[in-house]
Known about the structure:
It is globular and about 65 Å long. It is α/β, with parallel strands linked by helices. The protein starts with a strand and ends with a strand. The protein contains seven helices and 24 strands. Helix 1 packs parallel to helix 7 (327-339). It has an eight-stranded mixed beta sheet, sandwiched between helices. The structure holds S-adenosylmethionine (SAM). The site of S-adenosylmethionine has 18 residues, from helix 3 and strand 18.
Amino acid sequence: MTETVLGDVAHGGWVVARIDGKVTFCAGGLPGERVEVEITERGKRFDRALVTRVLEAHPQRVAAPCPIADRCGGCDWQHASPALQLELKRRVVAEQLRHLAGIEWDKTVQPVEPLWGWRTRMRYLSVDGKLAMRGRRSNEPVLLPDEGCRIASVPAPLPAPRAREVGVVQGARQVSILADNRVVSGPEHLAQHAAGRSFQVAAGGFWQVHPQAADTLVDAVLRALQPREGDDALDLYCGVGLFAGALVDAGARVRGVELDRRAVALARGNVPQARFEAAPMERMLDRLPGRADIVVLDPPRKGAGREVVAAVAKRAPRAIAYVACDPAALGRDLGLFQASGYRVERVEAFDLFPQTHHIECVATLTPATSATLGGVSM
Ligand SMILES: C[S@@+](CC[C@H](N)C(=O)[O-])C[C@H]1O[C@@H](n2cnc3c(N)ncnc32)[C@H](O)[C@@H]1O
């Protein structure tokens, strides 16, 4: 065991310490705490460690309600008060935006209720008929406590179906259970409601996880894009058409692009007024219309990247809404947009994943004019 004083929060649910001169990312701690840690991984540039004892606690430390919170890979911040969780996430977003895009971000992370029982999609491991979560940074199963997972929106199915992996997906009115990605109970497609519309989603397909997420993000995207009647809009990485539906309702002509063929087939039924293509974005870039008035993009965790950013900027939209679940990928891509003649007007951050380190941001971009080029401060 090594005694140390923890430094600031780092992206990914860690707090940084310097142990024997080496950067060490510690799980289970809070900034400023004096703790004992156990090194769990040794690396060339940095190590990882787990806090095993708290000697001087942060004033906003709370007892983690879940008995497996210290080992489970799901929750990183159960031991922080709700207010401190928001502050830790604020610092992570601010640091990523400063470091990767030169943006001074001084906004707060907006809380979204409920803070417990919000996860409408769960993936468990099944071990000898018992359900488990994956351990932190490992595939080792950590058996669920009797009370189940506290962030899950519905109780775990028991007895567990025979499978290696068990999925639980909650729709607006029904629940589906998957065993190794096959639906074994409940419907193949679930109805979800958002922004005054109903969407059919495959039980194993993508839908925003927190029950308030879809509405929260649609509102933020509409604030960002301010759609007008007759606008030509692109919904990139469109899933089953969540943002396309809201943009159609605002009078826009929408083209959507999405990799998952099943999602595209559903999007066509969900939003028949829009046009959807099933293809990897990288292959669609040359085939999209040459201009667009407004663009929403909601890429997976790794972000959109250089080619997609360049292709969007080339369409010269008057507003872009970038929805991001990883502030590091967002920071990198905002830097690329700034280099392509766009200005970051606003970044909103939402705590759509309470108790975990995850966070969702929506950035608004508009064309930079000569007056606005240069350093950005928000
Ligand atoms: C964060 S989800 C957003 C979905 C949708 N906007 C929503 O809110 O429901 C990202 C989507 O990007 C899709 N995707 C991942 N890689 C892609 C690629 N290379 N090209 C196109 N779509 C991709 C995924 O299938 C997923 O539906």
